[in-house]
């Protein structure tokens, strides 16, 4: 059993990575129903949260059915990070996560996200400020370093553990790599093997199949895996990985019926949380991923993104299911 503070997770847990504009409650819900063990909110600006920014506040929404769930924050100011952690406590998540890994320019330029990798002392101060301001377990998600010449994850892991974090998730790329190239898990394995490290270490990067999950589990010895982009349009990847690790058998590819059933839930959850119009608008970005590889789908996709009536969307999804069943897809 893996423990993060007082949170108990199964052996070798599968974590859903926090992804901006993706990891909202509707998406988290379908991932939870398909086997995700721990999930995080989209990342929230500490400064935005303190200013009571509407978008930041909405990201605090969590629900009992998705527990355990963490809320992730980012920022480069100690006082703002501490204050935002206290705000987060009021909605009672299971943990607080700090983002020291986001590589996008608008975050890095503010001295936050992966930008903090250039100043480990600041990273430690920011982390200590959050740990000191909350009774919740604090975890961190980060990268190997700023670039190939400044990989500092070994120092980072030890120093963040010293100031009280309860788990560390490591993406196997530097900030300079962004999401390009291949993730390097050797430094992640080295952190896990460090006799001074007592907290759980989770690996992240390039896991997109049950077979690869098993290989990385055995080769790198990490405590669990965090999955991000591979879960978009494919939330059943968690179920597939668990089944493969337990039985050695590969589940059949998701049928059109299974895809439709998950999409219907996702659409309904989205409308329930955001309201019908916004919920349907924000679902548009998911259809390509859910129906990737299905032949002759473009006309259906065009209609899906045009409709702004939930009942009509649900009717169309049933029509799609019936059509492809008859085609023996």
Order of strands, widest sheet? 3-4-6-7-8-9-10-11
- Tally of helical runs: 14
Along the chain, the helix and strand elements come as: EEEHEEHHEHEHHEHEHEHEHHHHH
Radius of gyration: 20 Å
Q: What class would the helix/strand composition place it in?
A: alpha/beta
Structural description of this entry:
The protein is an alpha/beta fold. The protein contains 14 helices and 11 strands. The chain has helices at 25-33, 46-50, 54-58, 78-89, 105-108, 120-133, 153-162, 186-193, 210-220, 237-247, 256-274, 276-290, 298-306, 310-326; strands spanning 2-4, 7-9, 14-16, 38-40, 44-45, 69-74, 95-100, 138-143, 167-171, 201-204, 224-227. The strands form 2 sheets. The protein has an 8-stranded parallel beta barrel with strand order 3-4-6-7-8-9-10-11, surrounded by 5 helices. A two-stranded antiparallel sheet has the order 1-2. Helix 9 (210-220) links the parallel strand 10 (201-204) and strand 11 (224-227). Helix 11 packs antiparallel against helix 12 (276-290). The protein is globular.
